[in-house]
Design brief:
Blueprint lengths: L3 H6 L5 H21 L4 E8 L7 H24 L3 E6 L7 H13 L7 E8 L1 H14 L9 H5 L12 E3 L19 E3 L10 H12 L18
Parallel strand pairs: 1-3, 2-3, 4-5
Helix pairs in contact: 2-3, 2-7, 3-4
Keywords: Magnesium, Metal-binding, Transferase
GO molecular function, one term: transferase activity
Cofactor: Mg(2+)
């Protein structure tokens, strides 16, 4: 969800105004994805590298995310959306915010509609390192490690591989996002900044994805995997 700061700067507003404006897009895209039949939606809200931003901006983001979570929890529950949080390992995360994440996960845990994963304090490399440590602690012999077994030690191992990554604002980087899961993802890079991104733009990205020929290393039109 890229471009909040640039959105604000183009309007001669503080960067925090861009983060505030992003809330409407978040809710719009969640609703659009659910209505379109998307089963799994992941939002990259805060990376392990985002801790390098100015302290005042980070503090504002923490307060904003807490307000958004508490404000929209009833809507997410009513829509049958199961909520999860990926990351949330850094001790700098305010305790109240971490508790709100846990409460929302528990509150919506029995929902069977779309699964919404919010990547917060997330880093793909850290996930891989933690999975390796988990395998070592389990005493698994090196020659018994397979891709399938390794994936079972990643956070939320029932999460399917990513089919489509949408990165707004025209930036074209992975930025440490779910590195294991995006191995065969399709990518779309809309030029719109995140606060200007809306349901029709999201649906256009889905149409672009559906027109792609996903070969998974095979020949054109050869079935080599489940594109879902």
């Amino acid at each position: 969800m890229d471009g909040n700061g640039r959105w604000a700067e183009r309007r001669s507003l503080p960067r925090t105004a861009g983060h505030n404006a992003a809330e409407a897009t978040v809710i719009d895209i969640i609703e659009a994805a659910r209505s379109a039949g998307v089963g799994w939606l992941s939002l990259y809200a805060f990376s392990t590298e985002n801790w390098n931003r100015p302290g005042a901006e980070v503090d504002h983001l923490m307060r904003l995310v807490r307000r958004v979570v508490r404000k929209h929890a009833p809507l997410l529950l009513a829509r049958g959306i199961r909520c999860r949080f990926l990351g949330v390992a850094d001790p700098r995360i305010p305790r109240d915010l971490a508790r709100d994440f846990e409460d929302l996960t528990t509150l919506t845990g029995d929902n069977r509609g779309m699964t919404l994963t919010v990547a917060f304090d997330h880093g793909g490399r850290r996930d891989i390192v933690e999975a390796a440590r988990s395998l070592i602690r389990s005493g698994t012999p090196a020659d018994e490690v397979t891709e399938r077994l390794f994936a079972e030690h990643l956070p939320w191992p029932d999460t399917p591989d990513v089919d489509l990554v949408i990165r707004t604002s025209g930036e074209q980087r992975i930025s440490n996002f779910m590195l294991w899961k995006v191995a065969y993802a399709e990518w779309v890079f809309p030029e719109l900044l995140w606060p200007d991104f809306r349901a029709p733009d999201f649906l256009a990205c889905l149409h672009t994805y559906r027109d792609r020929d996903r070969r998974f290393g095979g020949l054109p039109h050869q079935t080599n995997g489940d594109a879902r």
